[in-house]
Amino acid sequence: GNETIVRYLIKFGADINIRNNKGETALIKACENGNETIIKCLINYGADINIKNNKGETALIKAYTNGNKTIIKDLI
């Protein structure tokens, strides 16, 4: 699944905190999409939870916006 792909990319040197053209990291996107498995994987591999996108939003803000309490707990 997607977690396997994430682990593979990290294992072979992918930058876990790389940003897209909106300044979003994989962690921010995972929080936006509510993908708890990927979020936990990224956090375990050291993703920076404090990075802000171009709008000034962090992963925590995205999780809060979506109302996912489990993800919020993982990020705090």
TrEMBL record:
Keywords: ANK repeat, Repeat
Superkingdom as given in the UniProt entry: Eukaryota
Sequence intervals crossing the membrane: none
A GO biological process held by the record: protein K6-linked ubiquitination
GO molecular function: ubiquitin-protein transferase activity
Gene3D superfamilies (UniProt xref): Ankyrin repeat-containing domain
Keyword set includes Ligase: no
InterPro entries: Ankyrin_rpt, Ankyrin_rpt-contain_sf
One family name in Pfam for this protein: Ank_2
ANK repeat ranges per the UniProt record: 1-21, 22-54
Organism for this UniProt entry: Anaeromyces robustus
Protein name, as recorded: Ankyrin
